[in-house]
């Protein structure tokens, strides 16, 4: 009987495959049988494997559509016949003694079900039993064959291989030898999952073209359950094929940011939606395939041919700076197609990236444009003097949530139970630090943080101060998982108020000095208002250009404070806070996408008619 079955999973890693197979061929232990498992690669792995396929110990099998790591490895486990199974991902490599050392560790020790070697990573510069911050990797593990199987995509996708398989293996042992390399490169699967590598749910979905809702667990940000989130949306909305004859064919180009399901408001009104998505988004920039369905994706490979064949009634390009290059490519390729450019943020970021000329071209050539705030509109008119027709640029925040999420039942407030003040932060706590947070908690104010990400850079800004702040006030600082949209009302209504960005405007009323924080309406505003929460914001000076301050002042939803003593006093003024809470509840329908959908559709129709 063959001593070990070797599983070689590959997806779009064909350039690495020959090196991996060469390391397999050169093993000191020669009693192996290997299965190369091609999980829907776009780059054909057969040429890379050709030099090895005359070896009867090696076979290559595959399928056209990507099934995911779990299903791929399970196909290999189902076919394996040896008593031990080892893993050699196509982009990794074994030393010549790797298999021999693993099997020697298991030999004569029936109490062990698995073994692992040490591993090199970062181009072989670092050696560990397991790389810091990561579970044991496929390349370093061998285990006895059993009925246990990998968790598959329908149940969970994660970078945590322990949760997917290792944790169920029982007793194991390290070989005490470093005998393999975990190759470091941008296209690794775990980097598509983890926000600390500019990955995340939507990066993963785009790379592997996942068409179903995901249960998605990232080591950096926790669990997102799209299966539960969209269970009511997928069957409820009519398919585009049933739309009336008056419906438009609308091509969405770019990305949809946080509240992607908003576009179903157009489907509800009988319009057919198609998607052409950027390949350069971030984890929170939603791209297709969309998990709630009813948007038909155009192929990335020949998108120009697909757009030409579709001949949409109108292009609706959006939303943030990552979408600018693709939106402009579509505009240039099809200058006669009716085209609406819908932009939220941030012209400043496009300028830093060297894409300001591209953004300017989009605004000046689009048949119509929409931006998030009146302040952003004024800034763009000033930045493009004489080039931008004021009549062709309107205001509509492009990332408003669906009204679907306002149907929850409010909860009793925590302050009514313990007498303390409870405030909430959604997403990164911009402008917070340990001393300031401690001064806040010293005044009897709790801080509840939702959806924090353990990652370097702005997303992980909490990591710089959290431990020290918790040491000073352990009972008034609280971490929570991301709150699902269906729970916005129930979960957030427990708090007294919600934090917006703690930034102070200093433009002195000069539009040209305005920062992006001055011009933008943060995406957390509708979410906090869904819970009926007054919005906490530094007061700034009376003559500053500041879109968020203008919004909370106009709607009566703001707690504008001078300092922490002023803030604590306002939060304890129950009558005033109740009035702001009532204003928040009254305002929240107007900050849903559904509230503005008919106005948007009217604009799309007018642009389509001019075309």
Summarize the main sheet.
9 strands, mixed
Helical stretch count? 25
What fraction of residues sit in β-strands?
15-25%
> Uncertain segments of ≥5 residues (pLDDT<50)?
none
Mean pLDDT: 94
What structural category characterises the helix and strand content? alpha/beta
Radius of gyration computed on alpha carbons: 27 Å
Total count of strands? 25
Helical content stands at 25-40%
* C-alpha end-to-end distance: 71 Å
Could you say which overall geometry the principal axes of the C-alpha atoms support?
A: globular
Structure notes:
The chain is α/β, with parallel strands linked by helices and 611 residues long. Helix 12 packs across helix 14 and helix 17 (434-442) packs parallel to helix 18 (466-472). The model has no long low-confidence stretch (mean pLDDT 94).
